[in-house]
């Protein structure tokens, strides 16, 4: 387990892909999937560090991130359904009622 | 060294064997009444015709959301299960509390009617 | 087989959290098992529960107990912030029922959700482990996403919920990545251990991983406290969310974000103060300026207060840039008085607006001073306090924030703050001009002030005035609260 940098690079790349996806995609569900990708990149970082440092704090953190992400997913889908019912679309281009 | 993997090999043999046996014997012994419906691909009970972009009932999403929530909570049971004996009564009580909290959510969902299909 | 020795867990520090969680679950069940109809009784029970929790929290003042092997702490800092959250939640519960009744979305789930939000915020304030802080933040955020989109039939509310959710989850990603890198750089998630590890580094400012972690965590929190340039979600979410929830969001979670940010920056990373205070300097100036300038051109009053709340986060950041006793005590004082004045102002907005969130423009306040003189006086007090005029709580708060900055030599920052505050007077005054100097445009029935709303207004007026007249009392508490951190 000496290849810490490899894991860190992979997770950094995943995180960047997620971030770019959030910023460029239009579909709310796809955006949310990109956010999940970011969170999983974080999970990978935590697990890699946890293994490298030789204690479990990082892995416990990952368990919490996973469950919290699930709760977020449920709430997010519910919000998207409510939005879709009123708007017939989940494209963020239609999230436009309020403008400055 | 490799001997440690023997149980896994046995498991694989049994699993594959069981699957093969049931396939072979059911085709040999079982009665065959072929109808159009039986030959069509299985698609979780839906009519397997039409476009793939058909809309699902909103109920599917609701159930899926609830499933995600209750399913993922199992990750907290996992470390407890591994150390079950070492954690003793304390762990049991803690996990009991955890389940009670989940159960409150379950009762809420149930009473709210989110689990009823019609 | 060896038994794992279970460390003695002292439950005292999280007793209020446990109490509130149990109450929230009971309310949730009560809501589904009771016949549908009026849900006002849930509001009363929540209010009593919140008051009881406040007593419980207050009893812990002066204590210093670490528990859960250093993941949670009970200290004056946490206690002070918990009081702010409970206050914000209590006032919100008082003003919610009437509004929800009017908008015909009085679902009982509102109150358990508010309580869960408070539990999350309290965990954030007392968390001394990145894990606890993260969990508290998420308990808070997930409930808030629902609260923002609570009015399911209102398109604006849908939009607010969705937007808040997407951007909130996005910012959580940054925060977590920052936490992961900090964990990697220091080898621990405990705030106090991070401090000692970083303190022993020969040159912590050269540790790229630590710096990146700090930067990402700050980005995450900047989203949560709505600091520019991460403020873009705020106006839309505040405008679209049901008004009582807007009031709550602008007071409670903002304070919670500051609590966690203060704890992480001042306790875990004081050795990097030069680095983070420079960044926060820029952030504070941007936040104040952007908030105030955009608020100038708003006609919708909720939106105006949203931008003004961005500006207020900027003022509070000034205290954090200073990072000294005066500045940080100023943040605590300011967050407390901001809860009073802002929720009070939103309560008046609820009374002026009508079903479907219409009548929410500054022009609709025309003639309020003649029609409902008492409400107009209350609104004037809130606006004065928001603008930071003496003798209100807002003035004293700003005074301490800016003098903290001056003490540390940030003269320019204080000057920019004062200039901003002067600019903000314009848009607050504009509402007053409409209230007192314009005739009402049309005749319409005013919403009745129910008893809970009246109580909320009285508390808010008292809270916006008394700390301004006798500031020493509350300031003493605030100074004791920041002493330990």
Query: How would you describe the shape of chain A?
Result: elongated
Number of domains of chain C: 1
Helix content of chain A: over 70%
**Percentage of β-strand residues of chain C:** under 5%
Order of helices and strands of chain A: HHH
List unreliable stretches of 5+ residues of chain A: none
Helix content of chain C: over 70%
Rg of chain C (CA only): 22 Å
The secondary structure category of chain A is mainly alpha
Largest beta-sheet characterization of chain C: 2 strands, antiparallel
Question: What does this 3D model show about the protein?
Answer:
The complex is a heterotrimer of chains A (100), B (118) and C (485). Chain A is an all-alpha fold. Chain A is built from three helices and no strands. Chain A is elongated. The mean pLDDT of chain A is 87. Chain B has five helices and no strands. The mean pLDDT of chain B is 82. The termini of chain B are far apart. With 118 residues, chain B is mainly alpha-helical. Chain B has a single domain (2-40, 47-112), classed as Methane Monooxygenase Hydroxylase, Chain G, domain 1, CATH 1.20.58. The mean pLDDT of chain C is 90. Chain C is mostly helical. Chain C is globular and about 75 Å long. Chain C has one domain (12-483). Chain C is built from 19 helices and two strands. Chains in contact: A-B, A-C, B-C. The B-C interface holds B 83, 85-88, 90, 101, 104, 107-108, 111-112 and C 1-4, 6, 25, 28-29, 32-33.
List the helices and strands and how they pair.
The complex is a heterotrimer of chains A (100), B (118) and C (485).
Chain A: H1 4-24, H2 28-53, H3 57-87
Chain B: H1 6-29, H2 36-39, H3 58-72, H4 74-82, H5 84-112
Chain C: H1 15-33, H2 40-59, E1 65-67, E2 72-74, H3 76-102, H4 110-126, H5 130-148, H6 155-186, H7 191-200, H8 208-224, H9 233-240, H10 243-268, H11 273-296, H12 301-322, H13 325-352, H14 368-371, H15 373-387, H16 393-407, H17 411-437, H18 451-469, H19 471-483
Helix pairs in contact in C: 1-2, 1-4, 2-3, 3-4, 3-10, 3-13, 3-18, 3-19, 4-5, 4-10, 5-6, 5-10, 6-8, 6-9, 7-10, 8-10, 9-10, 9-12, 10-12, 10-13, 11-12, 11-17, 12-13, 12-16, 12-17, 13-15, 13-16, 13-18, 13-19, 15-17, 15-18, 16-17, 16-18, 18-19
